[in-house]
Queue: 4 jobs
Job 1
Amino acid sequence: MKAIEDVWLEIRDGNGKPVFSRVLKTSEEYWVPADEDGYAMTTGNAGGLQMIVDGVPMSPMGKTGEVRRNIALNPAALKVMLSPAEPATPETAVPVQ
C-alpha cells in the first residue's frame, strides 16, 4: 500500500496484536508480508491510501478522512472489495512541475 496523502494506519495480525501503527506520510509505503495470514487494517484516511494488489493499483477504498476498520489484508478479499484504478487520461492526469 502507498500513501497518496498522509494516512494513519493500524495493522493487526491474526491474533489481534498490533504489528504496525503510525502515520504514513505521502509517498511512503507499507508492504504486507506475503507469508502472513489474517492481517487486518484500520485507517483514518481511506481516501489517502492506494492499495496495490498483485502489482495492480486499486481504486480508493473510501473518501478522504473516512475511517475504515477491520479491512482484511489478503489479495482475494481486496480484489472483491476494490476495483482496479482507472488509468490517468489527459483530462485527469496531474501535471508534473
Job 2
Amino acid sequence: MNLNALRWSAPVVVFSIDNCKWCHEMEGVLNATYHPLQYRIVKVDKSAEYYKKFREELISTTGWSSYPFVFQDGEFVGGFTEFNSKLLLSDDECQIS
C-alpha cells in the first residue's frame, strides 16, 4: 500500500480497520454527509503482510497512533472527533445569521 498515493485518492480518505467503533462511526458520518465519489474508506487488513510497515508509515507521517486516520485534500486531519469537529465548524460557517 502506498500511503502518499492513497491519501490523495479522494477529497476525504479514511484508513480504518475492522472491529473499530470509531472507524464504523466515521463511515456512518461519511455516508450521511458526502456523495460516495467524495470519499474513500481504505480498509487496512491487520493480518496482511504489509500491515506493520504501513501502520508505522501512518504513525510517522501523522504523529497519530489510533484508527481511523482521516485525510482531507491530502492533509491529515486527525481521527473521528477531529474530523467531525471540523465538519460541524464548516456547517456553522455556512449558516446565514
Job 3
Amino acid sequence: MNLNILKMIEYPKQGIISKPVLSHNKNEVTLFCMAGGSSMGEHTSTKSGFVYVLEGNGIFNLKGKKIKMLPGTFIFMNKNDLHSLHAKLNTSFLLSLK
C-alpha cells in the first residue's frame, strides 16, 4: 500500500470528516479532518493507540491534561483513557488504534 495522506485531506465547512486509511490485523488507521471550531466531546476507546497531527491548531484533552495539537505532535493513549478534542483552526490528524 502506498498513499499520499496529505492529498487525502479535505475540510468540511463545519464538523468532522473521517476517512479509513488502513484496516489490517487489528490495526485501524483513520484520517480525521476537523473544521475550525469543531469539537469531539469526551469519550474513551477500548483500544490503545496514537494521534499524529498533520495540519492545524487545536487542543487535545487527555485525562484532564491539555495538549496543543500542532503539526508533528504525537499523542499516545492507553485503552479507556478519557479524551476530547477541539480544533481552533482546520485540523487534520491520523488516529491509529490496535
Job 4
Amino acid sequence: MNRISNQSHKEGSSEFRRFRELTPILDEINIAIDLHSISTGNDIIGIVDRKYLDRSLGFLDVETILVDDIGNTGALTGYILRQGKESYGLECGNHTD
C-alpha cells in the first residue's frame, strides 16, 4: 500500500480498498512502523520524518537513516504523521528473501 493514502486515481484498486478497510484501525493507533523490502542489497534502512529524527536515534539501530518530510507522502507513514502521530519506515530485507 505504498503511496496509496494520497492518490485518488487508484480508488478502484485492491490496495485502495484495503487502505479504506484499515483506515479505522490506523486512526486508532498512536505510533506506527511501516515495513518494506528493497530490490537490491540487504541493508536495514530507517526512514524518518524530520520532526522525529532526534527521537528515532534512541531506538533505530541502523547504519542508514533517510530523513525527509514524510508527512507529505502518500505512504502509510505519511498518513499517520498527518494525523499528528508518530510513524517510521524500515526498509528491511530484499524482495527475493
